[in-house]
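for the recovery benchmark. tokens below, seq after
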């Protein structure tokens, strides 16, 4: 009688043998991580261990072709999810605390967790309550706010400008919502605003003055001049009159409101000089924090070299 082999097998060989797509579950550890690959019908095709380093992960999983990889959110999930995404995988980062099958399991161990991640991701990724890691820029923005406000929970934040095309704005909104911001307001010309269904938890306001009322943080976004002219048909002076942040407009926000901008700024179009260089501006600090966050990411990525 032929016994089932429990010997670790290469996920690349499993992918080559499989007639359909495979799904991989990764249980991440500080030194080693456990993986399990399942086929299209849920059968276990490959499992084993891999060092939790950039080099080892790339060697283990590169060249497999596109497949789905699920992992729990944790210390290593930010850099590893970016690495695997660049290798062409669909990456699911699971919020394990909200998944009862994982958080409440009485049989928890690395091997079983990897198997469970793979099986749930194969059936429906939404079962894992997936999250999106914030970009380095968004982490710098949130770090800057916390430096001055200590806590983001309950803060009213206004984001003004080209939200539709801004990856920074989307990451900021995800992070602010996750950290319990009070009200997130989105403002700008209609042509530069996202669909309301994209951010159901945000309030979209056309009038910039109304959007600034009693807000704690104002985040201005860079506007590409060619987009302003082609999509909006507005002159620079007209845009500034409607959506530029001036001292008079800033007075509608709270007295200790922070002024932020991801840079580079178009002075006199998005923001007045007196505001950009004024006492409520934390823009230079925001830029410096961006450097520190990127240094931390590089140190994590290169730590195994």
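predicted aa per position
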């Amino acid at each position: 009688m032929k016994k089932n082999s429990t010997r670790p097998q290469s996920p690349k060989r499993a992918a080559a043998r499989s007639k359909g797509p495979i799904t991989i579950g990764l249980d991440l550890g500080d030194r080693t991580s456990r993986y399990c690959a399942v086929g299209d019908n849920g059968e276990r095709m490959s499992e084993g261990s891999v060092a939790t380093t950039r080099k080892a992960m790339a060697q283990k999983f590169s060249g497999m072709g596109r497949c789905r990889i699920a992992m729990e959110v944790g210390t290593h999930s930010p850099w590893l999810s970016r690495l695997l995404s660049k290798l062409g995988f669909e990456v699911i980062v699971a919020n394990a605390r909200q998944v009862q099958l994982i958080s409440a399991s009485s049989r928890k161990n690395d091997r079983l967790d990897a198997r469970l991640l793979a099986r749930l991701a194969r059936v429906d990724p939404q079962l894992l309550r997936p999250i999106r890691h914030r970009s380095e820029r968004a982490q710098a923005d949130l770090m800057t706010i916390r430096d001055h406000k200590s806590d983001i929970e309950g803060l009213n934040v206004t984001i003004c400008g080209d939200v539709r095309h801004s990856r920074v704005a989307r990451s900021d909104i995800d992070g602010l919502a996750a950290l319990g911001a009070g009200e997130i307001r989105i403002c700008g010309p209609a042509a530069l605003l996202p669909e309301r269904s994209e951010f159901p938890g945000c309030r979209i306001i056309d009038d910039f003055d109304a959007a600034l009322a009693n807000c704690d943080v104002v985040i201005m976004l860079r506007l590409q001049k060619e987009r302003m002219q082609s999509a909006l048909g507005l002159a620079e002076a007209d845009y500034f009159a409607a959506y530029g942040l001036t001292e008079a407009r800033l007075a509608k926000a709270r007295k200790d409101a922070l002024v932020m901008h991801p840079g580079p700024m178009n002075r006199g179009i998005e923001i007045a000089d007196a505001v950009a260089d004024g006492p409520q501006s934390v823009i230079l600090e925001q830029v410096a924090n961006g450097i520190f966050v990127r240094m931390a990411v590089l140190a994590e990525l290169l730590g195994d070299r």
